Amino acid sequence: TVRANQDRIAHVAPRVAARIVTVRANLGDRVKAGQILAVLDSIELGEAHSIYRQAQSQLKLAEADFNRAQRLRADEIIPEKEFLRARSEFEKARAATQAAADKLRLLDAAHRDSEPAQASIFNANAPFAGTVTEKAAVLGELAQPDKSIFTIADLSTLWIEANLFEKDLGRIKMGAPATVSVTAYPGEQFKGKLTYISSSVDKETRAVMARIEVPNQDGRLKPEMFATANISTQHIVK
């Protein structure tokens, strides 16, 4: 069976619960790395931005107070206790700002310094170039972090999952060249090589699962097609 390269599949989901306000990709679309798939609006993200901005304001005030206390202490105008209080407030404000910044990065690293009016808006982007093979994004619905709204697959290389007979295992080695044929293109063969042999035998069929990797730059092969594979038993490609 023709399968998508499982090392080049990504399930795109938001880091935080958010309402889908714009959908920019459709099923079957070819997308580029970083391309915007959807635009979302999150109350939680907006609140995190608000907390971060408040922490920044508190930090500026505490820093100014601490700097003033340092100057006055140097001139012996204020007691040590007052200086220590100002330093403590400054350190607490700095820690609070760092905590707010860390939370913001966890929710949406790319929008830390967004304008207040756009603080709750963020994008769902394609992690790499590929094809949209699944789409669950619906305008107006609430997207959750545990459910993908898009699945992106790089179909430039495909996996052919084949069953090997137990009796043939001694004649086949990793890296062996292989040819694959499908009924959609009679008489044509697609070249690949053996990249994986399972370490166990299926007790029912007595077959061993193997994987052949085949280039698919032209996109003619499609996932879930049935295929026939011929694996060379004489030469090994390193």
Key structural traits:
238 residues, alpha+beta, six-stranded antiparallel β-sheet, four-stranded antiparallel β-sheet, 14 strands, 32% strand
Q: If you had to describe this structure to a student in words, what would you say it looks like?
A:
- This protein has 238 residues and is of the alpha+beta class.
- Helix content is 26%, strand content 32%.
- The protein contains two helices and 14 strands; from the N terminus they run βββββααβββββββββ.
- It has helices at 43-74, 80-108; strands at 2-4, 9-12, 18-23, 30-31, 36-41, 121-125, 130-135, 142-143, 150-153, 157-165, 177-182, 190-197, 207-215, 227-231.
- The strands form three sheets. Strands 1-10-13-12-11-14 form a six-stranded antiparallel beta sheet, with no helix packed on it.
- The two termini are 25 Å apart.
- The mean pLDDT is 90.
Provide a concise account of the structure shown:
This protein is an alpha+beta fold.
Q: What secondary-structure arrangement, pairings included, does this model have?
A:
Elements: E1 2-4, E2 9-12, E3 18-23, E4 30-31, E5 36-41, H1 43-74, H2 80-108, E6 121-125, E7 130-135, E8 142-143, E9 150-153, E10 157-165, E11 177-182, E12 190-197, E13 207-215, E14 227-231
Antiparallel strand pairs: 1-10, 2-9, 3-5, 3-8, 4-7, 5-6, 7-9, 10-13, 11-12, 11-14, 12-13
